[in-house]
Q: What sequence folds into this?
């Protein structure tokens, strides 16, 4: 997928030194790591959001097993395939919302005023997405899960990445109640990229996996800040 991204960038003519401001969220952050190792000299800034260098079990055996079972359930019920573990759509949506968002954000009034709560808005978005059976397939979901599970960047590879891109050009953002990719993954990524805190690390208290929705204004500020910072490095 990093090579697909590179092919698109080349096609667009975005090939200059330090031209790219890369923002990688979740699995996109894993793809961004691969991309940064291929074309480090073309990256102006690199922001990793709710992602990991490699996935490890940080929540204990039984909780991890429960999450894997729920993942299988979501895969089978998102398609026309027979369910392994029958669950109601409401139960599935509650599980997905709990993985992605903090409860405080879900319970808050919808910022756009079209739904009672943010959680209701997301549920509507999710249900609409599931109606697109060609764009969101069981095969695609499983392939994404496998790709994320197999992604692995060693401390040595992260050090190489940071050396070539430049640590002042990198930041790591992660929410403390992220249940999709837990916050220790973000802590590890920042630590292995940085030397004595050279890589900016922003740990967002009480927020989940989708920071650009839960902290939209601050999120935009964090991105603007690093882009302004790297302008001074040119």
A:
């Amino acid at each position: 997928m990093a090579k697909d991204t590179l092919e698109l960038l080349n096609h667009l003519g975005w090939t200059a030194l330090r031209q790219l401001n890369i923002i990688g969220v979740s699995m996109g952050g894993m793809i961004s790591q691969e991309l940064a190792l291929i074309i480090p000299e073309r990256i102006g800034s690199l922001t990793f959001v709710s992602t990991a260098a490699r996935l490890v079990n940080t929540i204990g055996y039984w909780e991890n097993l429960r999450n894997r079972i729920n993942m299988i359930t979501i895969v089978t019920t998102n398609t026309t395939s027979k369910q392994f573990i029958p669950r109601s759509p409401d139960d599935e949506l509650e599980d997905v919302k709990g993985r992605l968002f903090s409860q405080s954000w879900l319970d808050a009034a919808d910022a756009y005023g079209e739904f009672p709560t943010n959680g209701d808005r997301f549920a509507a978005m999710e249900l609409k997405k599931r109606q697109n059976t060609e764009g969101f397939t069981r095969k695609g979901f499983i392939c994404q899960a496998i790709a994320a599970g197999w992604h692995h960047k060693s401390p040595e590879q992260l050090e190489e990445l940071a050396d070539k891109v430049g640590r002042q050009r990198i930041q790591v953002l992660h929410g403390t109640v992220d249940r999709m990719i837990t916050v220790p993954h973000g802590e590890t990524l920042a630590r292995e990229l940085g030397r004595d805190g050279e890589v900016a690390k922003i740990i967002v208290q009480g927020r989940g996996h989708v920071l650009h929705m839960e902290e939209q204004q601050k999120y935009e500020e964090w991105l603007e800040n690093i882009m302004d910072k790297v302008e001074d490095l040119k």
User: Anything to note?
Assistant: Confidence is low (pLDDT under 50) at residues 72-84. Strands lie at 20-25, 43-49, 170-175, 200-204. The first strand starts at residue 20 and ends at 25. The CA atoms of residues 88 and 164 lie 49 Å apart.
